[in-house]
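The following block was generated as part of the benchmark described in Methods. Ligand: alpha-D-glucopyranose.
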Amino acid sequence: MSSQSADPLAADTRTIDPLAADASIVPSPTPKAPGAVASDHGQAPEWWRDAVVYQVYPRSFADADGDGMGDLAGITAHLPHLAALGVDAVWLSPFYTSPQKDAGYDVADYMDVDPRFGTLADADELFARAHALGLRVIVDIVPNHSSDQHPLFQEALAAAPGSPEREMYVFRDGRGEHGELPPNNWTSIFHGPAWTRVTEADGAPGQWYLHIFDTSQPDWNWENPEVRAMFRDVLRFWLERGADGFRVDVAHGMIKPEGLPDATVNSEGLIDIPDGEVPVYFDNDGVLDIYREWRPILDAYPGDRMMVLEAWIPERRLPLYIGAEKAHQSFNFGFLQARWDVGALRAAIEKPLALADAVQSPTTWVLSNHDVIRHASRFGFPPEHSFGEGLARDEEPDAALGLLRARAASLLMLSLPGAAYLYQGEELGLPEVREIPDELREDPAHKRAGVPGRDGCRVPLPWLHDAPAYGFSPSGRSWLPQPPEFADLAADIQAEDPDSTLEMYRRALSLRHELELGRHERPVSFLEGLPDGVLGVGRGDLVVLVNTTGRSVRVDEDPRFAGARVLIASHEDDATGLRALPADTTLWLSTAGAR
Ligand code: GLC
């Protein structure tokens, strides 16, 4: 998106004193004019390179029919909110037919919509409305496994060992005298064995099938050409309907090592994963062929259709996945896992940028998604606990500190070149919800292992502060309980407050577009010689300062910033009165014209 207006770097007369900041200087973006942008749809070459993509988790975004679970019509109704926020694309987590044993990542029909979410006509309507608003749509594809309710798995269960039906999945005879032991010692990502034994047609205990995730999620057999052909059809089905891209679930998982050898296990009996490595069933070279096979399918459609991989792989392996004949991009989870300190943040920026150069494809940035603790809470834990679900239930994050740092981290992220992926609700600064009764938790990881699991980041969004279910559902129902603190975080309240997290995101996205910060042509430099605990990122005339310390830091005496103007601050601190960088705060400074 380019701007006809004057250089926004010169548009603000504020000095470095954040106290002088005037939120009205940077206007919220006007919603894109449907007609005007519609004609642009699909024209911008390689739009995904610097896009800001907003992840919608359909269960929890907006419920139109009142059953307490979000749906496609609810999403469509709220698309103007996303256009006004200033994102370029929407990624929809799965909305396909599914028994919802893993919140839709257990697909029973890849080419239909689950009745809980609507119909194919609703999907068409959503795509059309999004495109009219200038938003592209990325859909999730789940190729590693299906639901156990998929008709082909049901057929495989009914068929005999060795049959073509069983060859669609990974069935094996067990070990032990009577096949009573699993074929190997692999454990599931959701804990417990990665194999389940079936009962054969004659009633006798029979073969075992592989499921890297829940028992209800049998792995497809990607050595079978029929599986490959089926997924090519799935891609075409959604491309025909107007999908602009795919987020590929467990994109490093489909090909298993030959012979399914035992893995090394740790003292808890779980697969041992050395630091920076992955379990034996992930990141096997054969998986790369799948992307070489898929790329020409996407390229055959107009409008730069893309795929972004959910691949938790060692960084050194990334170049094998990404490139002109392979996938377009992959989530960079290093940034999401970085601790709140200068060294860690700098490394989490430098490494992916170097890799991006190597693969000639911009990196991605992400701080939250539906699988991790929301970053507004993550940053409220002591740094050594800032990532992962290993958090003890009784450990309470510091909510205010978490939000402060989360806003600072988001503002840093949005200044970086490449694509940025936002997770619904982070623009409201939503925390992880911890007070969910166990019986309401739905995450299979909770059910299998008793860990809190991922429901806390999946609680339905608050739209209106004084409506039932905070405007999520007209009936007031909500599949997970929303905590009372959601009232003050509701979108309607934040839209009225220039200091809100929502307004910060809007202004940051507007500036990011105008300054073309997503583009790699404006390289990143790191400023040396800053006070301890301050990270400085240079993007030409823009300097991004991140104060990771808990105290305000004077930077006005640094000659590099003399006369610099504050474009946006993640927090404005009226406690200190210093011409300084407030604690745990990010500033974007324009040094254009500064002496
Ligand atoms: C991915 C999804 C996660 C899901 C898993 C199994 O990691 O993001 O939500 O549970 O795959 O499909």
